[in-house]
Structures are given as C-alpha cells and as structure tokens.
Amino acid sequence: MAKIRITQVRSSIGTKPRQRATLKALGLKRIRHQVVQEESPAIEGMLKKVGHLVHVEPEK
C-alpha cells in the first residue's frame, strides 16, 4: 500500500465531537502537525469525514 502524509490545517475548535475523535484517531494533535499513514479504506473514510480540516499528499 502507498503511504500518505496528512497535515492538519484547520482547528478542531467548534467541530463536532466525532470529528475531533477522528482527528485523534488519525494521530493529529494540533494545526500544522503531520503524520504518515498507510493508505487504506478505513483511513480514506476518516479523511472524507474531516477533509475540510486536513491536507493530504502522497509520501515520497
């Protein structure tokens, strides 16, 4: 599987608790925090739910 780099670009303040929990499950803690995850259907589903809060790019 390919790896993707996920960067939190917007704050989780004012979002729904489930969206905050999704960010935490992805491993994101604050704005400009980056994590590298394996691309999988579960991760893709999480990214659809919080797509407005994160930026996704392929890992090199």
Helix proportion of residues, in percent?
Answer: 25-40%
Order of helices and strands: EHEHE
Could you give the distance between the termini? 13 Å
- What is the SS-derived class? alpha+beta
Unreliable spans: none
Task: Describe what this molecule looks like in 3D.
The protein is built from two helices and three strands, in the order βαβαβ. The protein has 60 residues and is an alpha+beta fold. The relative contact order is 0.37. The model has no long low-confidence stretch (mean pLDDT 96).
Task: Write a brief structural summary.
By secondary structure, the chain is α+β, with helices and mostly antiparallel strands.
List key phrases describing it.
about 60 residues; alpha+beta; 3-stranded antiparallel sheet; 3 strands; about 30% helix; globular
